[in-house]
Amino acid sequence: MRTKNIIIYSLISTFFLIFLISIWKILATLQGLSIKSFNIEILFIFGLLISFAHLGIGNRIKSIYKSIIFSTIFVFCDGFLIQKLPIWYNFGAFLIVCFFTYKISKYSFINLKKEHSTQVILFDFLTLFGILFFSFVILFPFYMMFVTSFKTQIALLVNPLDFSINFTQDLKDLFKSYFVIFKSYNFGKYILTSTIVSVGTVIITLLFAIPAAYAVARLNFFGKTFLSTSILIIYMFPAIVLVIPLYTIFSQLGLRNSIEGLLIVYTATTLPVAIYMLQGYFKSIPKELEEAAILDKLSWFGIITKIIIPLSIPAISSVALYVFMIAWNEFLFSLMFLDNPNSFTLSRAIQYLSGDAETPRQYLMAGSVVVTLPVLFIFIYFEKYLVSGLTAGSVKG
Amino acid sequence: MNDTLANTEKKTAYILTLPAVLLVFSIILFPIFANIWISFKEVELKDIRIPEPRAKKIVKSISDEPTKIKILYKLRNSSLIQEIRDVSFQDNFPKNFEIENLDPRCSYKKQKLKCEFGNWPAKYRENFQAIFATNDGSKIDKKNLKSIKPKLEGKSDNILLNTNFTLKNFKKVLFENEFVDLLLTTFYYTFFGTVGSIIFGILTAQMVNQKFYGRTFMRSVLLFPYVAPVVALAYTWELLLDPNSGTLNSLLLNYQIIETPINLLGQKYIEISILGFDFKLRLALTTVIMFEIWRYFPLAFLFILARLQAIPKELYEAADVDGASPFQKFFNITLPQITAVISILFMIRFIWNFNKFEDVFLLTGGASGTRTLPINVYQQGFAISDIGMGSAVSIVIVVLLLMFMFFYFRLLGKRVDEN
Predict the structure, then answer these.
(1) Fewest Cβ atoms closer than 10 Å to its Cβ: which of A129, A257, B261, B399?
(2) Predicted complex ipTM
(3) Do B235 and A368 lie within an 8 Å CB cutoff?
(4) Is CATH 2.60.40.1170 the right assignment for the domain spanning B50-155?
(5) Which overall architecture, per CATH, does domain A180-393 show?
(6) What is the pLDDT of residues A338-358, one digit of tens each?
(7) What is the pLDDT of residues A97-114, one digit of tens each?
């Protein structure tokens, strides 16, 4: 039983070490180092040695000294004997092995004797592995997008693996792609259009949704249940089904290529969720407040503006942010309705840019950074509100 | 007294909800019915433009006669296929203008030139000329004259409003359009995308539900693919996977894992042999599904995490007392607690993946075996410009979705009854 636990412990920790070092090697390769192989066999032997040695030494040496010793030996062997690599790479590898020994420091012979210890080890390492794996897989494309926008066409073609940014060059050269897309491709105008459309959608949606949500939450009327269920059903209806009829109708009414047309469609598609989210919150506001207001002879307009809105600022802001995000990211309708570059939104403009095979990719990536950054900033800054909006509305997409 | 109160309440409620209801119904419900209508018609993209009578006004001075001017109207029917009936024309002129050659179809009264041109067949063109002179001998300002635009009106049939129906579109969709292949591709894409995103959602939620340093940061990072715009992400992935100078292929080549670059988005099949069995994997479709999972697992993650955090801690404590292993705890406590969320998620994601258009369109454009039903709507409607066909495909989508929802709810209902 104990030997089995020890074997599983050492194998899992070894795989974890291999994974850590491999990610570090990939990142180092992307900084221009020429690393041709992962040396998995050597890493495997090292991992086994370190994890066994850790168990063998046990508590005889303080764990901090232990990790420093292990890391130094590892770095010395891996870095200087096998591959000749710069100091910063070895320093990183040193820190990684320190982190690794810190992670395995809680295991000992006594610990491994316990019931279910293999499963505990598996769970622990799976969590660690998952955190690293998902951070890498998710952040890598964003990292690539960002770095590519600062490179030049030639640098990208000569060595596609070189992700290093040369900060010593002129700011003008560094931000060249951004200057180009704003100057020659009119991105300033597209940002303006996108902002107008998104903010406009937020305002109109709130104007329509707040009274409707109040009515659904508070008032009794014929057709109320029908309305609240149909809101949800309508929400499930796919946008692609609406495209052709809306296209024909908008063409005949001359609403294509206009901001008004987009505003109408965006508002209509976000209204159901907005009403659904707001009415849920309005129901949680105590009724007594309104009853007092009715005694004071306040009209419904007064009730909404003086009581409901001030009390539900958090819900309203989460709806607003959520609607803004949908409108800003929307692509399908802007692709269908806009074909005149004068009325493009940012997303449509980037798609249009990519349609030309000659467009250098760093411009495309600079455009992508421009369209992504505002959303990410808003998301990070207002995360609390947005997450509640996302879970309630479960963003259509 | 009570009655009137209830009545005012009702009235207020209708006033409050009416704007929202009208907008949503006109933009979402009406198009669905319009779709059914169009799908039974033979309509092409060029038919939906309403034919208009148009006139281009050209002002020409006549040499040696500064008080006279020739105006040429280039008249035409904007449509190449439809006629316009009862075309009427009107143009205004300055006060001192007199007409010299009055066309029999026209009249000139109160400085207004009015004409009745009758019916214009499709592609109709005519050059219509009028000569004017000032009656007080003053010079003519050409610019001013040009700035006045003539008005034209005419009646024409709107092809969308007539009642000629046909079943041709549906026949084409179901029998001539590689329908089975289309359906299978859509099904693979939807099913594996949904299942994959739910599995990843469970894994990440379980992960973030534990305590570790940087947990809140991790939670926001996991939501990044979900909140960032599709356009940016799709093009980034395209660059990443590019066979010639994409990062992924370069990395794999650098580490000698592969010998020749793989075109992950442009190759339909790849042959894989495992244990002597040869498989044909649909490569581009798999890549697109990967993107789909990558982009949408955060939704599953959010839902499942919210549910996990609501599971009472006592359950786990009791399990610890009983000496349950981590896996037993996961399978016997966690999983049963999240099945309800998963079944809802499955339905929501299945429906939305089924209708997903942007992701596939931006990554492959529907090429190399990734043509799904929504892509087909676009291709039929706008690439082949057969609006009727596009509509028919979208009706097929709606019918399939309704069928799916019906069966899913029946299955779910049975399960609930059994428990």
Answers:
(1) B399
(2) 0.89
(3) yes
(4) yes
(5) Orthogonal Bundle (1.10)
(6) 888 888 999 999 998 888 777
(7) 888 888 877 777 777 777
